[in-house]
Design goal:
Length: 197
């Protein structure tokens, strides 16, 4: 009886912890609305500059429901959620070997002049005052395969990736975990591993 009680207590603690680190479900619509507005404004700036945006798929932890709303950095607890916004650009002779990050930083500055921005190796991070959200604008190139994209980092590293295959993988695992007997969700396992990392 004692062992069952201990297991039950541990389970309750883990469930509560996952709830504490998981983004709030009721804010999903608000976040999606703001990310769609960012997509529209940045796309307009890029197209004014002569780029062709082939797609702006939903990617990262937000559509996969594997994100964190808080994490630790060293010994410090950090509140906030990152939302990825990829821009898949058609390659042309002018942009063929260009990382694009500096260009997209300019588009972000033009579209949101009062918003805090910083560049990372692969994105332009925008933080809006009054919220604990940041939006990572990730420019990448389209390929001949509609399910593959090329990311050129600021340091020149070239990475081939697939937004679609990442999403498909997570969805298939979530579906499998939902169909299995048990109480552990695949999304929750990913959140716990992200926190631990």
């Amino acid at each position: 009886m004692e062992n069952y009680s201990n297991k039950s207590t541990i389970h309750v603690r883990i469930k509560n912890f996952v709830k504490w680190i998981a983004p709030e479900k009721e804010k999903r619509e608000e976040i999606k609305k703001q990310s769609d507005e960012i997509r529209t404004k940045i796309k307009a700036k890029a197209e004014e500059d002569g780029l062709t945006i082939e797609s702006m798929p939903y990617s990262g932890s937000f559509p996969k429901k594997t994100g964190l709303r808080r994490h630790y950095l060293g010994e410090q607890e950090i509140d906030g959620q990152d939302i990825d916004i990829p821009f898949v650009v058609k390659k042309d002779k002018e942009t063929e070997f260009e990382p694009l990050i500096k260009r997209f930083e300019g588009y972000a500055k033009d579209a949101y002049p009062k918003t805090e921005r910083e560049t990372t190796k692969s994105s332009v991070k925008m933080s809006f005052s009054g919220t604990k959200l940041s939006y990572d604008i990730v420019p990448m190139f389209a390929t001949s395969d509609p399910e593959k994209q090329i990311l050129i980092r600021e340091n020149g590293d070239i990475i081939t990736t697939s937004i679609q295959k990442h999403k498909d993988f997570i969805r298939s695992r979530v579906k499998e975990s939902n169909e299995e007997d048990g109480i552990v969700m695949f999304n929750d396992c990913i959140r716990l591993l992200k926190w631990w990392r």
